[in-house]
Amino acid sequence: MRNFDFHNPTRLVFGQDTIPKIGQYIKEYGEKKVLLLYGKGSIFKNGVYDTVVKSLQEAGLTVVEAGGVKPNPVLSKVREVVALMKAEQVEAIVAVGGGSVLDTAKISAASFYYDGDPWDFYERKVFPKKALPIYGILTISATGSEMNSGGVITNEEEKKKWGWGSPFTYPRLSIIDPSVQSSLPVNQTVNGAVDTLSHVFEAYFGGTKGTLMQDELSEGIIRTTMTSVKTLLSEPSNYEARANLAWAATLALNGINGLGRAGDWASHGIEHSVSAYYDIAHGEGLAIVFPAWMTYVHHVDPEKFARFGEKVFGIVDGTTEEKALKAIGAYKAFLQEIGAPVALSERGIGQEHLDDMAENAVLRGPLGTLMKLNAQDVREILTLAL
Amino acid sequence: MRNFDFHNPTRLVFGQDTIPKIGQYIKEYGEKKVLLLYGKGSIFKNGVYDTVVKSLQEAGLTVVEAGGVKPNPVLSKVREVVALMKAEQVEAIVAVGGGSVLDTAKISAASFYYDGDPWDFYERKVFPKKALPIYGILTISATGSEMNSGGVITNEEEKKKWGWGSPFTYPRLSIIDPSVQSSLPVNQTVNGAVDTLSHVFEAYFGGTKGTLMQDELSEGIIRTTMTSVKTLLSEPSNYEARANLAWAATLALNGINGLGRAGDWASHGIEHSVSAYYDIAHGEGLAIVFPAWMTYVHHVDPEKFARFGEKVFGIVDGTTEEKALKAIGAYKAFLQEIGAPVALSERGIGQEHLDDMAENAVLRGPLGTLMKLNAQDVREILTLAL
């Protein structure tokens, strides 16, 4: 086990009928004027927008609105939001939506106190010293952004989809009411589950030894996610399945699961490169990339892939190598069972940009920890994923 | 799953050679004069005292010392510590030791700002509005006090061993270097493991349904604890086993494991009553009380006890009732395997105070959630434990 230094200051309010309290919470923390940030309109359909606005108004808060944050959120939107925040001098951000809205809120909260371009933070040219407080209202469980400090933004002009975070960009408070996710389209629930699993895999397969407690936690999150998403395919309004999936998604990336282990994160890097070229959902990209990555690197740590097979799929027969390969096959079969794509071709992606995507993926250096991947490796993984 | 509101602001620094950083951390947070609080001297033997003092001195801090905190820490010591803190006007507490030292630090940190008697907080006569910052240096993994807000103190005069906590008594920062626990006597390692398991059980067996994610986490902590403590019996210096046991102990009671579930806590209540009458280690008391409690209440939720048997001991044959009873038997056998007592008689406790302890246990009302226990129930459980 590696040493670690963990500090997650986010307060998490979880459960049914918790969203109407948001105005009161903000009032108690002391802000009076907030930016209400949201996406492309699902919150109008599921009633969350009305609930939040009513709560903010009843608490006497002044509300400035900015909607239209896209999935795979973009830098141009961040710039627009930051300009509005500065013009209006808001005191906090209320981010209502999924990871895209929360991620946009984080970079915007830091950029509020910075005169230069927000992308400078992503390029590590500057580091924030503070950020506006962020309140999250989660409407889809997937990225874990509601309880961590990180965010991914796409710089459309430069085709860079990068991650960034700071100690100042943890949401102060996030609310998760799993019941509002009952109306999500099936594919979004599935993509969220794949995202959750992928976050766990990045820590689980990073190669660090002597982490029994972490492995147990990872396997528990994996099994819970798989069981819950399968239940939701037939019972989308099953509250317990929604709640367990939501809590699993938060635990997968609130820091706890990764402690004491080197994260790998190559698959995320590759997926970011794919979705910088193609308009593909992050969860879909991960469903496609991860089995290919597993196939390409499993020889470095076959014992861990075999353990994964045993603990998650009950695979106990065969040599270590055989069990490892069966495990990867079983994961691919699970993805197909829940309707996730497992090949680039399923989303109309061919060989056109393989080289570009491979080069793009390693722009900031080789990817991965379990196995260091250069552009050629990435190209081979993408080829496996075709 | 129940709704929950979680906020754990403690920063956790974990791993080898982390203790020498304590002075620097405190300096960065800004305090200049601290109380160094510790127990009965093990920190002199394992070198931790010297490491801490050197680090505090090198950071230029003024140090006031108070030692002699006992296991099952007592109110008279708290009063003495608070008087010293007020006289010296310290700005923070550095608590070096196990749960007893941390628990003493918590009530003392709150009492620093209160003119009345510290026990008033335990009696819920007053509630703190602030507390001095607490820095923890953990030397034995057991209570989880390093990353939660609670503490148990014994009022010797009134024979009350009670728990208390507040949002202000989370340690600001705790350091866990598992390697310093290599020199612990075997029975202390065992007692710590039993304490950890018992914390998990209190949430796991509380009766709340629809908590797959939490159950998975609990079972992971239980398996990790059992595996690690068994390794340590033959290899007390095995770092990975120490690290996994330590991280499991923290996870067992830093709040995460309990979220969304009603805790039971009857067994802790009964043990506190036992150790208010007899000078018995908390872990030993829990090893004795828990199997008796399980036997007495399992009929209320036999499915959960059967699940426990399957997930922890691999028990799959028999009716639900049979599996539940086998599980309780397997847990008792595990306790005996690691050298923990499973009967009051093993610690020389007979029938003398059964009625007194039963009455004392329910002083603040019936115990438990899975099954509400009155004095007669407690007496029967203690009788089962004889």
From TrEMBL, chains A, B:
Keywords: Oxidoreductase. GO terms for cellular component: cytosol. Gene3D superfamilies: 3.40.50.1970, Dehydroquinate synthase-like - alpha domain (1.20.1090.10). Pfam families: ADH_Fe_C, Fe-ADH. This is Iron-containing alcohol dehydrogenase. Residues 9-178 form the Alcohol dehydrogenase iron-type/glycerol dehydrogenase GldA domain. Residues 189-384 form the Fe-containing alcohol dehydrogenase-like C-terminal domain. GO terms for molecular function: alcohol dehydrogenase (NADP+) activity; butanol dehydrogenase (NAD+) activity; metal ion binding; methylglyoxal reductase (NADPH) (acetol producing) activity.
